[in-house]
């Protein structure tokens, strides 16, 4: 039976490392102490782009790195998906620029996608299903990249001190003779919260040519955790698995406090939780795959391991996905 495996993963982040001290001082000057906020979110350091970088440039670098790691060229890729909520271009697609930079093949299928912070996980899930049904797509390059600092609000800790910039890239590959690959995924949506996080506030029709920051209405992110736990339970039950069968958890790095709630609910051992939010900040779309990269590089995720991804996008849209790495 044909399945879709994660062949390789690579990441890219800017060189500009910014520690908590900068944000503590920044908000102190505004009369606000964000010490407790940074602790709750689990932040310590994060990477921020300089004037020469953006979501596209980071995504291109991550793509080149994963191709080199897989010992492949652009001609070996049949599909390119670029996931971002901060696109450098809307015309043409960002995937088009990636295709050019990696010298992609003429037959390549490609497009951009946006499911906000859930984007790269959604893109991997969608691509996996599509590859199973299309005999012409044998390898796909999925990129998740956001330069969140471009739209973060310097007057709001929730975005300015929390969000950061990075990219991840994975190569998906068909396999028929390996006990590995995509297992399943489930979604949960509640569009009642669609106005909590919004950019641009009035839509592009009213704001093109104006400088705007993301509108981020503070909310209790923990409200999503009971539903997230139900999603995880359903996903495992539907596939005849128990929480103990999962080797590693690559969860949204939005808030450490939320990760700890999921961990405590299921009594997950510390060594199974991959956490990078203290070193990378919140990179949104790429965050679960930066966790995957970390787990592979440190040896805590090995071939044959069952990995559970869970993340949430603005609105909100949640996705939980199982892969046998």
Q: What does the model show?
A:
This protein has helices at residues 20-28, 35-41, 55-70, 94-101, 119-133, 157-160, 204-207, 225-238, 256-266, 277-280, 287-298; strands at 3-12, 17-19, 45-47, 79-83, 109-113, 139-147, 165-175, 181-189, 197-198, 215-216, 248-251, 306-313, 317-324. It has a 5-stranded mixed sheet, sandwiched between helices. A hairpin with a 3-residue loop joins β12 (306-313) and β13. The chain folds into 2 domains: 3-175, Thiolase/Chalcone synthase (Peroxisomal Thiolase, Chain A, domain 1, 3-Layer(aba) Sandwich); 181-324, Thiolase/Chalcone synthase (Peroxisomal Thiolase, Chain A, domain 1, 3-Layer(aba) Sandwich), CATH 3.40.47.10. It is 32% helix and 24% strand. It has 11 helices and 13 strands. The model has no long low-confidence stretch (mean pLDDT 95). The chain is of the alpha/beta class and 325 residues long.
Descriptors for this entry?
single chain; 325 residues; alpha/beta; Peroxisomal Thiolase, Chain A, domain 1; five-stranded mixed β-sheet; four-stranded mixed β-sheet; 11 helices; 32% helix
SSE topology sketch:
Blueprint: E1 3-12, E2 17-19, H1 20-28, H2 35-41, E3 45-47, H3 55-70, E4 79-83, H4 94-101, E5 109-113, H5 119-133, E6 139-147, H6 157-160, E7 165-175, E8 181-189, E9 197-198, H7 204-207, E10 215-216, H8 225-238, E11 248-251, H9 256-266, H10 277-280, H11 287-298, E12 306-313, E13 317-324
Parallel strand pairs: 4-5, 4-6, 11-12
Antiparallel strand pairs: 1-7, 2-3, 6-7, 8-13, 9-10, 12-13
Helix pairs in contact: 3-4, 8-9
């Amino acid at each position: 039976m044909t399945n879709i495996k994660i062949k390789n993963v690579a990441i890219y982040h800017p060189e500009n490392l910014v520690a908590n001290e900068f944000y503590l001082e920044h908000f102190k000057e505004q009369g606000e102490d964000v010490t407790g906020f940074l602790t709750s979110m689990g932040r310590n350091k994060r990477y921020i782009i300089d004037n020469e970088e953006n979501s596209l440039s980071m995504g291109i670098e991550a793509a080149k790195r994963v191709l080199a790691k897989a010992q492949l060229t652009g001609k070996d890729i049949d599909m390119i998906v670029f996931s971002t909520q901060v696109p450098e271009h809307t015309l043409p697609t960002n995937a088009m620029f990636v295709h050019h930079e990696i010298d992609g093949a003429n037959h390549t299928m490609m497009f951009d996608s946006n499911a906000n912070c859930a984007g790269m996980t959604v893109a991997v899930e969608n691509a996996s299903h599509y590859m199973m049904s299309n005999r012409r797509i044998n390898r796909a390059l999925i990129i998740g990249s956001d330069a969140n600092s471009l739209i973060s609000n310097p007057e709001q800790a929730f975005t300015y001190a929390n969000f950061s910039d990075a990219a991840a890239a994975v190569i998906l590959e068909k396999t028929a003779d390996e006990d590995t690959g995509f297992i399943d995924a489930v979604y949960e949506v509640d569009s009642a919260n669609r106005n909590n996080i919004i950019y641009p506030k009035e839509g592009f029709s009213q704001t093109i040519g104006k400088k705007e920051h993301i509108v981020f209405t503070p909310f209790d992110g923990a409200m999503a955790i009971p539903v997230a736990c139900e999603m995880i339970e359903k996903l495992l039950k539907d596939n005849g698995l128990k929480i103990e069968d999962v080797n590693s958890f690559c969860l949204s790095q939005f808030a450490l406090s939320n990760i700890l709630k999921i961990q405590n609910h299921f009594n997950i051992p510390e060594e199974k939780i991959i956490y990078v939010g203290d070193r990378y900040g919140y990179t949104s779309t790429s965050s679960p795959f930066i966790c995957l990269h970390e787990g592979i590089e440190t040896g805590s995720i090995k071939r044959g391991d069952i990995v559970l991804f869970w993340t949430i996008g603005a609105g909100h849209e949640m996705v939980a996905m199982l892969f046998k790495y």
